[in-house]
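User: quick one, fold this
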Amino acid sequence: MNVDKNIPFFWAVLPIIAMVVAMLITIVVFEGAPHVPLAFGTIVASLVAWRQGFEWQEIESSIYKGIRLALPAIVIIILVGLAIGAWMGGGVVATMVYYGLSLLRPDLFLISITLMCAVVSIAIGSSWSTMGTIGIAGMGIGAGMGIPAGMIAGAVISGAYFGDKMSPLSDTTNLASGLTDTDLFVHIKNMFYTTVPGLLIALGVYWYLGTSFSGAAELTNIANTMTALEQSFVISPWLLLVPLIVIVMVANKIPALPALTFGIFLGFLCQIFVQGDTTAVSMNTLQNGYVIETGNDVIDTLFNRGGIDSMMYTVSMTIVAMTFGGVLENTGMLNSIVKKMASLTKSAKTLIPTTIASCFITNATCSEQYISVVVPARMFSNVYRERGLASKNLSRALEDGGTLTSVFIPWNTCGVFILATLGVGVVEYAPYAVLNFTVPIISILYAITGFSIAKIKPEEQSLVSASSKQS
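Assistant:
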């Protein structure tokens, strides 16, 4: 495919404008789903590509490339749906919630779940695996304490993405350092400047919010929820081995897919041999999700979920979103937009904020956080060198603006995964995902003030200048 065709900025940005307008009308006015606006955006993008000289075969190929990029995420989404159903039916989540309610204090719960998710995510290098295990249990524990779902999800997300960002095992961390030719541990060390203050701010906010949940009402909710759990499930500390085994497997570099599959199998066995359900009921749980009626609204809302069917909305939205992103990326429209933004920068004060903005726009248009790291990395690498800025500035900006902001786009693969896994939408958790929006702000403030902005050494800058003249 000839992605080097020069698509003018106006035509490149037109599909995005069309998609955003359609999205606002559909969601705000008609209270609909984002699928149709994304499909409409794909149609507009395809028409623009056709007008700019692309053959239909090239446009179709770009759509399939976008979908193929989402296939690993789709497989994980389906496996997480199976895991949720199996762990609900097997009493694994109920046991995690039960002991969590007995050990954690309501006023410190948001801080505790943030730190727990951060530690697990650093150990395994995956925000998704962390949210799909510790996060699900955290939602149940917090709900039992009477804490709003948006707050709990925000704390889980902040902790999970802190660990994902700072772990040497994280795929996005390795991607950002590799694309910019930055040593992995130099990259991680440089992210401490923005990410650790972001975490401290988040913990401070969660401490303040937690002061509202230390009264007698919360203690009554906890007691009622624990009683309902004892009456509805077989609670055993042995069931805690299931999530522990999965976490240990991933921490020992066993890929997520086989680790999750083994966790699903263990949950399936627990539903049959521990909870006493039949094989037919357990199989149905994997497909349709777990069903329970206890009369306790908290328990019923939390545990009636999971299964493959529950993930089909998420899978379909991921596929449609990636058709739109595939056309934008593979026909060069996104490159045209990023180049235009790069041409407006003159120094670190504007270049780093522009990079972060480009990452966010890529998250919103291409619906995949990996693209939000890859495309700006390709477009801005030479610009950073020409401006005398060390590569670790770019690698940090890519993570601050790409990895973290992906959760704020409802149709991004990260946004749809969180909705499917934690059961909370972007509008509800966004105000409480404190780390994810404070870190980009801190990064922009550093760029403006010059704090922690590393320059290329004079001799290196001479080589860069000579190379630029030759090219």
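User: anything notable?
Assistant: The chain has a mean pLDDT of 88.
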